[in-house]
Specification:
Two copies of one chain form a homodimer.
Chain A: H1 22-25, H2 30-43, E1 52-53, H3 55-62, H4 66-78, E2 82-85, E3 89-92, H5 97-116, H6 122-140, H7 144-160, H8 165-185, H9 188-193, H10 196-207, H11 211-246
Antiparallel strand pairs in A: 1-3, 2-3
Helix pairs in contact in A: 2-4, 5-7, 5-8, 5-11, 6-7, 6-10, 7-8, 10-11
The structure holds a DNA duplex (30 and 30 nucleotides).
DNA sequence: CGGTAGGGATTGTTGAACAATTCCACAAGA
DNA sequence: TCTTGTGGAATTGTTCAACAATCCCTACCG
């Protein structure tokens, strides 16, 4: 019985299955934790696109010094969530229409490649299916906010099929950037709903092991989403910028 | 005559064609300039993988405060050029074998997609050809260092066919990371040379407008390069780590 | 030989200070 | 009325000094 508490050492001091807990031990610097908080706040719309983030105010609110806060700002600026203007401060970024087009350009490349090079991985299939079902449930209960996030997760799982850490990170950043776009659109309710049936279609192809088929559907999906988004976004983004200027 | 110096204002205070000069006015903060210097130094091998970057020493050498320097460190850590270990400092990163595999995984996705979706763009064709010729010249004169950088440029131009700002940035980061690998290998001389003929083959296909054909060659190219690199790298990386530990 | 208790060096973080720049309101002039 | 200075307040850019926390190494001790 007591044996179950003794680490199972195979050889060379390697304790298998323990590396997973590495993240729990790894402490993070204050700047990174602050960046995490701000990242979450931006994602949920607490800080709206175009808004300025005052060093003084946020520093006081979070109880960290300006220097530490500035390190956090650098991180988020690098992720394109904030825009840094010299001597003016940092602002929540307002993606341009060109940004949206470029984001979809990259998503098409990444997600389609991941789906096309499909390998049989039951574990990830389950995760994809799970995300689709979460989306269904959200739509049924009319929880539009959850529907949006479920859809994001669905696409992140698709990208994860590539099995690449860097791809996962990249897609995470792209979707975080897209969230800014949706905050400006301010009507994500109806936007995602229409794509629910397509999620199922894509999932079916994937489960059938039909990579190219899934890719074709996904590409059309992304093309349509981009077109719909870009069409409605052009004015909105400009209006958001104007609103900031006029405030 | 004097009229040519007068801004042509159409309406609403808009001066057309001037936005392009925006980048020239944009000053950079000290932290970004410092990051630029360090980035260059790392690329050229002045700071070798595994080496520690002392806040004190580098701060004194560059004449900037620790705070500013730390902002620069954050930037480069985010780019995976530096590794930040809490309370131990920042080190020039030693990519793992898994990193190399992942880098090539992403490169295959990105570069192949860019080449496949080939559109007729004479300007970029010329740029690609130029890079190939620079490589030829470097090989002829036995300038192995230049050969390596020319090869990097060649691939960056291929990726640029995608027409995506984000793809360009990503590929730039990946190749910067790969440079770390080559610094550890310490023998880039012969590595790139064997791929010169393939550069030409790929270029030919591209100029012929044969996207899929070029993609096929490029994929094989990257597979071979990865295999060769990974095979030789596994020991080297471990040796580099051990050397640091034993120093 | 292994463990451990210093102690020096380095990083983590803060707070204050000052310079540089922007912003805004207001006045002066065409 | 519109543009053009001109102050001063507010904010950012950067440095500096200080202290806490942590790591690393050495010497000591069982």
């Amino acid at each position: 019985m007591a044996g179950s508490l003794v680490p199972v050492v195979i050889e060379d001091g390697v304790v298998p299955g323990l590396e997973a807990d590495r993240g729990l031990v790894t402490r993070k610097s204050t700047a990174e934790r602050v960046a995490g908080v701000l990242r979450k706040r931006i994602a949920e719309g607490f800080f709206l696109p175009g808004g300025r983030l005052s060093e003084q105010d946020i520093g006081n609110a979070l109880g960290v010094s300006r220097n530490t806060l500035r390190e956090a700002f650098r991180l988020l600026t690098h992720e394109r969530l904030l825009a840094h203007e010299l001597n003016r401060g940092v602002f929540v970024r307002i993606p341009s229409v060109e940004d949206v087009v470029d984001i979809y350009r990259v998503r098409k490349i990444i997600e389609c490649a991941a789906v096309r090079g499909l390998k049989a991985k039951p574990a990830s299939f389950a995760r994809i299916k799970e995300k689709v079902e979460i989306g269904d449930e959200a739509a049924r209960t009319g929880n539009w906010k959850d529907l949006g996030t479920a859809n994001v997760w669905f696409h992140q799982e698709l990208a994860a099929l590539s099995g690449s850490e860097r791809v996962n990170e990249l897609v995470g950043r792209l979707t975080a950037e897209l969230r800014l776009v949706f905050h400006i659109m301010a009507e994500p309710r109806r936007f995602h709903e229409r794509y629910l049936p397509r999620n199922h279609e894509i999932l079916d192809r994937i489960e059938a092991g039909d990579g190219p088929g899934a890719e074709q559907l996904l590409l059309k999906y992304l093309d349509d989403a981009e077109e719909q988004l870009v069409g409605a976004y052009a004015d909105r983004a400009e209006a958001a910028r104007a609103a900031i200027a006029a405030e």
